[in-house]
Amino acid sequence: MTARPSFIGAHTPRVEDDRLLTGGARFGADVSLPGMLEAAFYRSPLPHALIGGVDPSRTAELKGVAGVFTAEDMSDVSPFPDFDEHARPVEIFPLARGRVRYAGAPIAAVVAADRYEAEDAVDLLSVDLDPLPPVVSVEQALAPDAPRLYPDWPDNAVIEWPVSNPDAIAEFDRLEDGAFTVGGRYEIRRHTGAPIETRGVAAEFREGRLTVWTTTQFPHIARTMLSYCLPLDESDIRVVVPDVGGGFGVKAEFYVEEVTIPWLAMKLGRPVRWIEDRREHLIATCHARDLVLDLEAAVGPDGRFRAVRGMAIQDLGAAEMYPYGFSPTFTAVGHITGPYRIPHQSVGVLAAATNKTPNGAYRGFGIPEAAFGIERLMDKAADRLGLDRNEIRRRNLIGQEDIPYTTSAGAVVDSGSHRETFEETVRVAAERREHWRDRLAGDPRIRVGSGVVNYIEGVTPTYFMTTGHWTSFDSCSIRVNPDGTAVVSVGVSTSGQGLESMLTTLTAEALGVRRDQVRIVMGDTDRTPYGLGSWGSRSTNVASGALREAADALLGKAVRIAAHLLEASPEDIEVYDGSFEVRGSPGAAVTWRQVATAANIRTMDLPEGVKPGMEASASYDPPGIEHTPDEYGRVNAAATYTNASHAAVVSVDVGTGQVRVLEYIVAHDCGTVINPQIVRGQVVGGIAQGIGGALLEQLHYDEFGNPLSTSFLDYHLPTAAEIPPMAVLHFESPAPEMPWGAKGAGEAGIIGPAPAIAAGVEDALSEYGIAEITLTPITAPYLLGLLPSG
Amino acid sequence: MTPNMHNRLRPPHEAPTVKPPRFRYARPETLDEALHLLAEHGDEARVLAGGQSLIPLLNFRLARPEVLIDITMVEELRLMAVENGTLRIGAAVTQRTVERSEEAARACPLLTKALPFVGHLQNRTRGTVAGSIAHADPAAELPAVAAALDAVMVVRSSSVERTVPAGEFFFGPFTTALEPDEILVEVRFPSSGGARSSVVEISPRSGDFAIAGAAGLLLASPGGRTAECALALFGVGGAPQRLTEVEDHLKGRRVTSGLLDEAEEMTARTALADSEDIHADAAYRARVAGVLVRRAVEEMAA
User: Fold this and answer.
1) Within a domain: B86
2) What is the ipTM of this complex?
3) Yes or no, beta carbons of A123 and B284 under 8 Å apart
4) What is the pLDDT of residue B17?
5) Which end of chain B is more exposed for a tag (fewer CB within 10 A), N or C?
6) Which domain holds residue B159?
7) How far is A770 from chain B (nearest CA, A)?
8) Which residues of B touch A780 (CB under 8 A)?
9) pLDDT in tens, A357-397
């Protein structure tokens, strides 16, 4: 076994693209079953109300209606189990029971011959709702006389985790050497992932077995949750994931509709499907962010940060979401120091329930919020000192000599290129800013500026802090068929990000088969080993760990068989491109097909002591992950850490306050790059979403708790016209403990844009001395409000 | 007359993918048929042209007409022509058709300048000029263009035809002088070929409805002074508004930096800015209206 040309890092096209780009995909709405009925939901029009009753009598006039169901009909369904020991208990029922806590909560499900008829029936329901006063902000939620969402609770705080780290506090008590403090409240407003495909669920119950097609990022977790809620053994449930048109974390929640639709199929004995429309998506799929970081830093006279303290305060919405919506706030705290040597921190968490759509996951998962807070503070401290904003970062960044570096949040940074990406980004950004200043110099209305920021991202995290239940492992099973094709089945699950390509490349690399001999199986609990799915930039790390172990076992066996067939010593066998050769003897070769035929069919050709068959399974739990924080919130919650530096070159129209991102520069390090095109796609797509969050996106509510952003007319995703040219520079610092040295790259791009753009805008407007930008989205009205009039 | 009535709009071969409330659908081929249907159903009917506003409202079930009268196959409404110094655009003429018409560009450059701001190319390919004006979204460009150009709306019911000048057509958000039994059959834009024109707006994203915008027309005298001038705002108030005070102030003067300052200040002060939504408050709209008018005038005087 010796070195051979590697597939790792090669520019190979994505294997899934032919199918996806030529209409071969089968998405949630393409699932169509014989005799299928369709469901629609009556969703609460009120943000907070007691449910009196549902009168379906007027639906009798519609011939196609198969039934109208409410929580009372679902007595054989258990609420979602609640595993968290720290947060106040929340019982989640598939249909709202007794009370609704957000506009959009499902109260009744109507099943009919088609969606038209189901919607018609929804229109005809008489639902008796007794309005309760709504709570629409954290301040309101925590006021002493606030209406309570959960009457059993003493207040509306879902989780309170105050942290008081004496080492951090001491730094604020001794500022005599010229040290000083800076602080601010940094706010990222309410977002959602908004994949182009909304959610969808279809279910069929036949001969005691339930099959559920659902647009989820975690099929096995969905199956386990179904077994907790429905009166079925887990073996009698199969979860199948169709092609998924984007997840971004919002499909890494287990939703009430994923129980209701299967239950309806069981109840009615007919397949039932529900496809979420966009309005439902914006009020019933989880929201995210809506976090205020109230931070203060103690900074030395040299600009070195000594400690950070404060609170992460989250508007959690109605809290009826699992996995828990407050988890990103803990992740924010875990990333609050960024890639900086800040020796102490003391940042607590407070999440309050309000009458809004419940929060959950969205790409970045708290880290964009953390980066916005700490990077804004860096800029503020630099300005206070009269120090260059890049220089203050230079003085605080982790260097190679510090690695492995344990941050004061407990993250063990095992590798990285923190200073290298930064210096390169600073250099390119300066050049590009000058280019744009020259180019736009003739326009008196326009100012140009740039901002450079840094971050680390813990990838492949524990799920225990998010679910209170699952931890971090995943699985892989490989079967080589007699014709030499390899079927690789994994517990991770794709939503379009290129996992087939990644796994195909690694299988070819590990087994020596050709890429076209590899088939990947994902997203079917009957055909894949147990795993936790795809979220947290984890798939590459966990799937590759399991894949490598399974492949190594198979390859060892295959080499023994090949050596036997070639009458050579196993040590002399090389495998590449689907065949086994004897080193130094060109022409002496057997193919993977011959080896697999021997293993599976012509077993008389096997060497002594080698058992028939060519299958292996393995599971992999990344080393070093901790599952619970200590009393100061410190935890190494991730398997490894990526790093990056981002720069935005922006223009500001000083007459209108409108910001445009002219150009974006990113120097990104996710360890070994397996497929450069996919990594670039992930980074660029993440930046595009980050630009949306920085400048455009916000889910608005009025003072009565009515959602106002219920279509794409009002929830402004960036279009291609708002996305600038990007320079993507790859750095590679392999993760020492990870297979192939790779680190997940799914979320990174979204972390940098908000602080980079905010800094760029301040730089552009430096002549005006505007007040600090403390929130996103940086809309034109917000920014013009900071500029002097006239 | 046998209008083509369907129970539902749905593809024959598969389950429906959109889900408006029940309605009946008629696609008359003459204007008389259309007007008779409208007379019969009154405010239970809605006229459908490009559908760029109505169809989303239907699919959200925010509009619930009993009958949709699709006028896109009415031949006589597909007319576009310049006659006697007037650009006539029939109710079924798409925005894209006008945008691409050299004749329209020569007659009314302001109109063709404004069209690229209307939604996206796909919207304009189906959306009609008259439909946008009849819909009267306060943030839409075309009503303001009609106001700036003193366009005339030709309105018909089954019994009578009347004309309404733009200045008397727009009442407020989504509200016009159209009666329930009337169709806006044609919009007449007086030719303004000799004047300079400008459209400036601010919108969150390319293709969005404007937060605020200004459409203008300016004719300079041989001596460089402003002879004629028309300015209309959109997005700022509930209906397009002409800035007559600013227009009068500009007339007879040379456009100087000082005059631009005055125009900006006067606009911000006199504009009726009562549009407030999640994207901007009224104060922002008033302030930016001044900036946009300044830019429009500056561009036209350059």
Assistant:
1) yes
2) 0.93
3) no
4) 60
5) C
6) 78-190
7) 17
8) 202, 204, 211, 280, 284, 288
9) 999 999 999 999 999 999 999 999 999 999 999 999 999 99
